[in-house]
Amino acid sequence: MKKILFLAMLLIGVAMSMQAQEYTTLVVLMRDGSSTKVQLSEEPKVTFSGTNLNIATTATTLQLDRAKVQRFNYVNDGGVKGVSADNKSTYIKRGDLLIFQDLKSGSKVSVFGVDGRMLKDATASGNYEMSLSELSSGVYIVDVNGTTTKITIRR
User: Fold this and answer.
1) Which residue range(s) make up the domain with 8?
2) Calpha distance 33→4 (Å, rounded)
3) Which of 62, 64, 86, 151 is deepest in the core (most CB within 10 A)?
4) Do 50 and 25 share a structural domain?
């Protein structure tokens, strides 16, 4: 019964949110405090499959364990300036560099294309710089220790 009620509330919320205004980002908040942001260019298709919550657009597909999802909402953020990788770690995008500060030892830093392909990957700690000079103009996803956000590169 709880699953059916959750599904009904989820679908009603998605429908009402998408009709209210045009949103640019879907933010999924997890029970462990992490979050995932999905850049939207169209209305996503939200479905359930077994114990998974599936969110799909033509550009990306996200599959999450339903039990770990706390909630999700849509925002019209117009772009993300930075990301919190943990309580102390942030990055700054300066030119072709992502500059990370105070990363925990063994932090995993990855950059993905919107199609889900991993383009760059590193393990870092403390202060770390990642060059993006080889990437063309476009939208990319940066993941730091499980916390993701989008960045835009303009050339």
Assistant:
1) 2-75
2) 25
3) 151
4) yes
